[in-house]
Amino acid sequence: MASVIVFTDFQSNDALGRSVIAEYLDMAARRHCSSVPITITCSQEENLRRLSSSERIRHGKLTDMEVVAHLQDNALIYQWPNDDPLHMELDITELKVDEAAHLILKHVLGVCKELDGQ
């Protein structure tokens, strides 16, 4: 049975961020899994609004508005190569969580042929 592992995090385009990405890719290769990078974007206003959700707090996610605003204004975010056929970029500014999840699932099922019929 094929499997999918989903990582939801932010990585910077510096030595540390690139090394974390390399760890993810290495783990996928060792498990013989496809690695499907999803770049999620959101307007700064909407992102800051969503930070205080009980869901983020419950799952231990970053909720400090000042830190997030600083990262958005100053950090160089890791960008996947444009020619990666598995990559998806999704702006979730206007999407509900379940809508975004459905679009991501549809994409994963479309690019991971090993998941056909599962």
Please characterize this protein's 3D structure.
The chain has 118 residues and is mainly alpha-helical. It has one domain. 45% of the residues lie in helices and 7% in strands. The chain contains 5 helices and 2 strands. The protein has a two-stranded parallel ribbon with strand order 1-2. The chain is globular. It comes from Fusarium pseudograminearum CS3427. This is WGS project CBMD000000000 data, contig CS3427_c000849.
Give a quick set of tags describing it.
118 residues; mainly alpha; 5 helices
Total discrete domains? 1
For the biggest β-sheet, the strand order reads 1-2
H/E series, N to C?
HEHHHEH
User: What level of helicity do the residues show?
Assistant: 40-55%
Average pLDDT score: 87
The value of Rg in angstroms is 15 Å
Shape: globular
Would you identify the regions where 5 or more consecutive residues have pLDDT less than 50?
Answer: none
